[in-house]
Amino acid sequence: MVFTWLQLAIFLFLFGGLLFAGGPLILSWIIAPRAKGGDIGMSYECGMKPHGRAWNQFGISYYVYALLFLAFDVDVLYLFPVAVWYPHAEGMMSFYKVAIFMGVLALAIIYFWRKGVFTWPRKIS
């Protein structure tokens, strides 16, 4: 087998990619502090010492609403380029594509509504 310049370049880029990806991981493992206990295990609250029970867990509703907002917000961002290009499009195909996209979004909202995601749970004391 003859070793060519192309194979050398492939091996060099492979080695460089592995070094680029694994180098920071290995370096942080080598130079990271090994201290345990004290403030290391304490929860982080904006750089201040926590007050009271620091390990309170928030209800899942907050996270569900945040994820739903992000999902629909990103989907709506796809509509901005479409709205800019829509006057220049010819034919009805672009209208059908936008209608299908909006239909899928509407079906997702209906699905989440039926599953009860948008109802905020009442706190029982």
From TrEMBL:
Chain segments annotated as coiled-coil in the UniProt record: none
Similarity comment: Belongs to the complex I subunit 3 family.
Keyword match Transcription: no
Catalysis performed (reactions): a quinone + NADH + 5 H(+)(in) = a quinol + NAD(+) + 4 H(+)(out)
Pfam families attached to this UniProt entry: Oxidored_q4
UniProt protein name: NADH-quinone oxidoreductase subunit
Localization per record: Cell membrane; Membrane
Membrane topology: Multi-pass membrane protein
InterPro entries membership: NADH_UbQ/plastoQ_OxRdtase_su3, NDAH_ubi_oxred_su3_sf
Main localization category: membrane
Its biological purpose: NDH-1 shuttles electrons from NADH, via FMN and iron-sulfur (Fe-S) centers, to quinones in the respiratory chain.
Keywords, sorted A to Z: Membrane, NAD, Quinone, Transmembrane, Transmembrane helix, Transport
TM segment ranges: 6-32, 62-86, 92-113
A single MF term (Gene Ontology): quinone binding
An annotated GO cellular component: NADH dehydrogenase complex
EC numbers, comma separated: 7.1.1.-
